[in-house]
């Protein structure tokens, strides 16, 4: 099958969905009111609450939700064939993910820009609020662990990649100082300097690889599993303007530019999809994801279809930027569909590899031997990129090889394949580290809030010592999970946690729509995807718990999955009680709820 045909068909579906279903949600279900003051206008403080142009708000929201998830999940799910992932990305994003993001953004705006747990407390009850807060904390820890393993598998024994990624840290700090101290307000200058320096770090890689520095940068997986949490600790403890903010800013340029370049490359090259529509692993027993195509396709591909992590953004920074309620459609629904397109391109890049080459990269050598699959172009690809890419599971390497192969297939660019590969590795790792540093900081905030429930003064404390201690605690928590873990065990746990948050967010949205929408039947827009996702999460979680973790004595992931499933049940029971109470009374739509 032609990759171009798949892209054109998917683009048409996403555009039509935005035009018709997105408009229906905006006009009928949520009844967006452009005359109503948003929290950004009402509480404008020039810091947290600042009304932004809709395209600026869109750019921020897209950069925040589209981390490594839409790149990694689809690549891992390619083991089932190209069709299951494609269908889930399109159907999931249109009917579930974009609805989820849009409704949570609307709910937060109508509640004064409050967080998901605060909205749950208001719309469902205090028990649901506490359960949601705990679930959010566990999700962030698991996100850091899952994405951290992807970086480890991409960078171990790769001095070029380690050098490039390591250099982005002092570059980000320099840009932070440049924008904050040296040339305040000169964002254009800082952007140009930052992008040039990052690209220079990529091009200097081969010289470093062959220099005296190479042995010091050729790191084992265990070393990286220690260094990554250490980095997360520093990023969470340092002032936000010094490292986290400039890294996010530079990353947005790299992301947009690389995705556009990949789309252009696919259009020019028009590669063929080599992976079959379905593989034999749809019935289970896969070397990457052990379970059947359902429910595991829905927890493997989260970002790109529906992701509970998005609820943290939709009820975090974004609602404090929306200048007009009519912008909720383009920011909430539109950004999610854009991310779905990114996920589809990642899936295409991976499935343009020959099946044997794909599985040789994404499984350990001892496991690949049992598959009895021949490699086709892998030796040549390894030679062209200058690295042995076999036995590097996690999705990042196979995606980078696929992207590099597409770029190198453009006439005149074949000799630059090693650069394309390392650029793709840098592109992926840079965004994962952005998620890690931001996520570790957010986890620190949430840990402080949870402790504040026990001892109130902690919640508002500005103590540097407390910040350092909590940063160390959350960094150790996710670092412990990746040390000795592997992508096959941690990614499904992350998927369960992520989609559990999606269930909770849709349940909260259902409660709000039942009370405030003009017609109660509109609550089906969130209730139906919530029901599907709840059944999926419970099924996948129980399978992992009873058939993988407990039989193999993996108690840490077993306990985490058990906690997430319990929290989902608690919130669902609370929501059902709330819904029955609402439905027992005459329908009197409320105009709004504001704080």
UniProtKB/TrEMBL annotation:
A Pfam family found in this protein is CstA
| InterPro entries given in the database record | CstA, CstA_N
Pinpoint the CstA N-terminal domain residues: 3-539
Q: Indicate how the chain sits in the lipid bilayer.
A: Multi-pass membrane protein
* UniProt subcellular location: Cell membrane
Transmembrane segment boundaries? 6-27, 62-82, 88-109, 130-154, 160-178, 190-208, 228-244, 256-273, 293-313, 333-354, 419-443, 464-483, 489-509, 521-543, 555-577
Supply the alphabetized keyword list.
Cell membrane, Membrane, Transmembrane, Transmembrane helix, Transport
> Which residues, if any, are the signal sequence?
none
Q: Is the Membrane keyword given for this protein?
A: yes
Q: Cite the PANTHER family for this sequence.
A: INNER MEMBRANE PEPTIDE TRANSPORTER, PYRUVATE_PROTON SYMPORTER BTST
Q: Which family does it belong to?
A: Belongs to the peptide transporter carbon starvation (CstA) (TC 2.A.114) family.
* Protein's recorded name: Carbon starvation protein
Q: Which organism is it from?
A: Carboxydothermus ferrireducens DSM 11255
């Amino acid at each position: 099958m032609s990759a171009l045909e798949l892209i054109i068909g998917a683009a048409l579906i996403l555009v039509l969905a935005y035009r018709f279903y997105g408009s229906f949600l905006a006009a009928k279900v949520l009844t967006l009111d452009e005359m109503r003051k948003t929290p950004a206008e009402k509480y404008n403080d020039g810091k947290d609450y600042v009304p932004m142009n809709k395209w600026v708000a869109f750019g921020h929201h897209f950069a925040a939700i589209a981390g490594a998830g839409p790149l990694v999940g689809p690549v891992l799910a390619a083991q089932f064939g190209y069709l299951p992932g494609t269908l889930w990305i399109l159907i999931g994003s249109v009917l579930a993910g974009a609805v989820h993001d849009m409704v949570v953004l609307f709910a937060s705006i109508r509640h004064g820009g409050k967080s998901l747990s605060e909205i749950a407390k208001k719309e469902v009850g205090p028990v649901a609020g506490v359960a949601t807060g705990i679930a959010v904390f566990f999700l962030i820890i698991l996100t850091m662990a899952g994405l951290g393993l992807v970086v480890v598998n991409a960078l171990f024994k790769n001095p070029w990649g380690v050098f490039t990624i390591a250099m982005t840290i002092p570059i980000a700090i320099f840009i932070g100082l440049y924008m904050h101290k040296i040339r305040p307000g000169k964002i254009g200058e800082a952007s140009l300097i930052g992008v040039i320096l990052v690209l220079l770090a990529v091009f200097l890689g081969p010289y470093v690889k062959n220099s005296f520095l190479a042995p010091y940068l050729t790191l084992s997986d265990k070393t990286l599993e220690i260094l990554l949490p250490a980095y997360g600790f520093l990023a969470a403890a340092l002032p936000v303007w010094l490292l986290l903010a400039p890294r996010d800013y530079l990353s947005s340029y790299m992301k947009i530019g690389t995705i556009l370049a990949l789309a252009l490359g696919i259009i020019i090259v028009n590669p063929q999809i080599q992976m079959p529509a379905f593989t034999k692993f749809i019935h289970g027993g896969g070397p990457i994801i052990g379970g059947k195509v359902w429910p595991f396709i829905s927890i493997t591909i989260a970002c790109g279809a529906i992701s509970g992590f998005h609820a943290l953004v939709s009820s975090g920074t974004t609602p404090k930027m929306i200048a007009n309620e009519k912008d909720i459609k383009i920011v909430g629904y539109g950004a999610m569909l854009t991310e779905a397109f990114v996920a589809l391109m990642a899936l295409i890049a991976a499935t343009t590899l020959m099946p044997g080459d794909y599985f040789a990269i994404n499984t350990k050598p001892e496991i690949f031997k049992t598959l009895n699959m021949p490699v086709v172009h892998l030796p040549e690809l390894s030679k062209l990129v200058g690295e042995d890419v076999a036995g590097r599971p996690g999705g990042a390497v196979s995606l980078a090889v696929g992207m590099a192969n597409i770029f190198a297939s453009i006439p005149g660019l074949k000799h630059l394949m090693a650069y394309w590969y390392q650029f793709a590795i840098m592109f992926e790792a840079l965004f994962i580290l952005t998620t890690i540093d931001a996520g570790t900081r957010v986890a620190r905030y949430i840990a402080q809030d949870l402790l504040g429930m026990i001892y109130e003064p902690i919640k508002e404390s500005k103590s540097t010592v407390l910040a350092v201690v909590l940063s160390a605690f959350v960094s150790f928590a996710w670092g412990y999970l990746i040390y000795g873990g592997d992508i096959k065990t941690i990614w499904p746990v992350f998927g369960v946690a992520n989609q559990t948050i999606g269930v909770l967010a849709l349940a909260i949205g259902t409660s709000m729509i039942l009370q405030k929408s003009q017609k109660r039947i509109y609550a089906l827009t969130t209730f139906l995807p919530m029901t599907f996702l709840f059944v999926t999460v419970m099924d996948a979680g129980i399978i992992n718990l009873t058939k993988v973790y407990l039989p193999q004595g993996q108690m840490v992931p077993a306990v985490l999955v058990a906690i997430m499933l319990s929290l989902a049940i608690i919130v669902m029971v609370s929501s059902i009680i709330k819904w029955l109470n609402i439905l027992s009374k005459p329908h009197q739509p409320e105009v709004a709820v504001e704080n």
